[in-house]
Amino acid sequence: MKSWRGMAVLCLSVVAPPALAQAQPQQADISKQIINAPTPETFNVYGLSAKPAVVKDKNVQGGRALRVPIATASDQPWSVGLISSINQPVKKGDKLVIVVWARAEKLPEGAGSAKIATIQVGLAKEPYSAVFKGEGEVGSEWKMLHVVGTADRDYAVGDISVSLHLATAKQVLDIGPVLLLDLAR
Q: Bridge partners of 145?
């Protein structure tokens, strides 16, 4: 199941309410609910001295991931982050689902998991406040994380983005596809 449509069906079956998940496969094209640039090659990573590499991995949806080495923990976990741009407008009341495939290629010393401090949809410019957010933990195996929220108002293309805050420890994270699904589509 490497296609975006198949991935969207899998995501919806895991994160959507049962009645909605059952209704989704009958839609003509579920991939129309993906409203961001989901592939690792499209992510903007900030806070690193060098651009992270895209690596091949047959064990993650899509077969590729962005390897993000975090040199040190910070009391400001947003000092290293990843952004996925949103390429569709969002309407007030739209139910949104962020889906992230992630794993720790190198865990923090002595830890059994690596933490992603924030997984959010937020403003793409100052004050960068969150529309909604969550967090996640991953181990050395691929894990699908998800965060669900509702748009508090209308947003034009470029107003908001998906972001992850990663500077929680000295660790190396592999970030696979990041999808933002708009269930109102």
A: 100
